[in-house]
Amino acid sequence: MPLKKSGVLAILGIILLALVITLLFLPHALPEIAEGDVVHVLTRLFGLYGFLFLSIATLTTPFLREVIQAFGKPFLKIHHAFAAFGIVFITLHPIFNAIDRFSLSVFLPSFDSWESFWMLAGRPAFIILYIAVAAALLRRTAPKYWRFFHALTYIVLFFGIVHANLIGEDFENIGIMLIFDALFLSSLASFTYKRYKNYQLKRKQTHTSLSNPTTNQPPPTLPSKKTPTPKTIDLLYKGGYSQKPQKYELC
């Protein structure tokens, strides 16, 4: 399917948001660049971009059908594209921080005090992120458990936003702080909405099963806008209803 107008608008909106963040970032960064502190500047910028794209990846999860219709691609391709950008930038953030400080301690969580742990919460967030990534890669191997570990992405965002609000230099800019706090709250809202949709689906399945006691199976239905098919939503067609759908279970 071709890229729809809504998909183009979504891409333009993301680009615009990234540009706004960059423009808000530059006034504080340019003097440091002039002084030759480029690595420190890139460390901060990678952290911002990483959180941005990881948040966008989580925001897509409740809207499988809408994402497919907007972008004309399987949901996983779009979701994984945003996630990949987020993972790359978030990975570069501590790497450049380690280069800037000439220390590998930036990868180790701090347990010196409660306050220290949360100020440096980006460190455990980095470890948890790769646990969530590994869970996604092993979803076929451990179908019963991978969703729980993959959902740790939301813990990553929580740790990240706390870390940024406590010691993030760029969060001294009220515009950047508001944008990223709003992104985190939106991610929480998407998580809640996704769980609510799953609850509604299970409730409807139970009701349908009770209304068909002889077969104990719901009657076959085509996907509709209001009622997705059970969990394995036939979304990843790679071309439409005429082809066999791929099944994918979301966390």
Describe the structure.
By secondary structure, the chain is an all-alpha fold. The chain has one domain. Helix content is 67%, strand content 0%. The chain has helices at residues 5-34, 38-60, 64-71, 75-101, 114-119, 122-137, 146-150, 153-167, 174-211. Helix 1 (5-34) packs across helix 3, helix 6 runs antiparallel to helix 8 (153-167) and helix 8 (153-167) runs antiparallel to helix 9 (174-211). The longest helix is centred in the last third of the chain and has 38 residues, at 174-211. The chain is globular, with a radius of gyration of 21 Å. The model is unreliable at 230-249 (pLDDT under 50).
List keywords for this structure.
disordered C terminus, globular, single chain, mainly alpha
Q: Tell me, what's the shape?
A: globular
End-to-end CA span: 26 Å
Low-confidence regions: 230-249
Major sheet characteristics? none
In terms of DSSP E residues, the strand content is: under 5%
Domains counted in the coordinates: how many? 1
Q: Report the order of strands and helices.
A: HHHHHHHHH
Estimated helix fraction: 55-70%
Overall mean pLDDT: 85
Rg computed from alpha carbons, rounded to a whole number of angstroms: 21 Å
What is the structural class? mainly alpha
- Summed up, the helix count is 9
As an assembly, this protein is: single chain
Task: Give me the count of strands.
Answer: 0
